[in-house]
Design a protein that fits this description.
By secondary structure, the protein is an alpha+beta fold. It is built from 4 helices and 9 strands; from the N terminus they run βααβββαβββαββ.
Length: 154
């Protein structure tokens, strides 16, 4: 697999990424349709996409960075078929090469389910293993999701 960087996603890529998002993230974060997902993407400031492309040109993972208030933020998703094989760490390493400082939100418990009803495991241990720091006193809480802030860098 290789990582392909881009500032713009085509319609086919967006469809694949919506499917990946809804498959791997907690059901509370699922988008009901392409228009809702495109609206989310359109509101990102200065997005940079990192596509983990398989040998047969499918997308096995996706990371992206964007500007928000105090800095550079990121999100990452790896298809379950490719998890625990080092691809998520490879995506993070590429993000770290391109960004001195990164922020993200991550769930710190295993209480959520995916759209298919399977358990969503907190990725916090993965980020800590990859040298991210937990900012325990900064949380994102709303009626849908609870997350803690993490950071990498200076």
């Amino acid at each position: 697999m290789k990582i392909r960087k881009t500032n713009h996603l085509n319609d086919h890529q967006k469809e694949l990424l919506l499917s990946l998002w809804n498959k791997e993230y907690p059901q509370q974060l699922a988008y009901p349709n392409t228009n809702a997902f495109n609206s989310y993407l359109d509101n990102l400031q200065n997005p940079r996409h990192y596509l983990l492309v398989t040998d047969d040109d499918n997308i096995g993972g996706w990371a992206f960075t964007f500007t928000r208030n105090e800095g550079q933020w990121f999100a990452i998703i790896v298809d379950g078929a490719y998890q625990k094989q080092g691809f998520g760490s490879k995506l993070l390493a590429t993000l770290k090469q391109d960004n001195l400082l990164l922020y993200g939100w991550v769930t710190d418990h295993d209480n959520y389910l995916k759209v298919d009803g399977s358990k969503y495991n907190s990725p916090l241990p993965f980020y800590l293993k990859n040298k991210f720091k937990l900012i325990a006193d900064e949380r994102f809480e709303n009626s849908q999701i609870s997350a803690v802030k993490i950071s990498y860098g200076i």
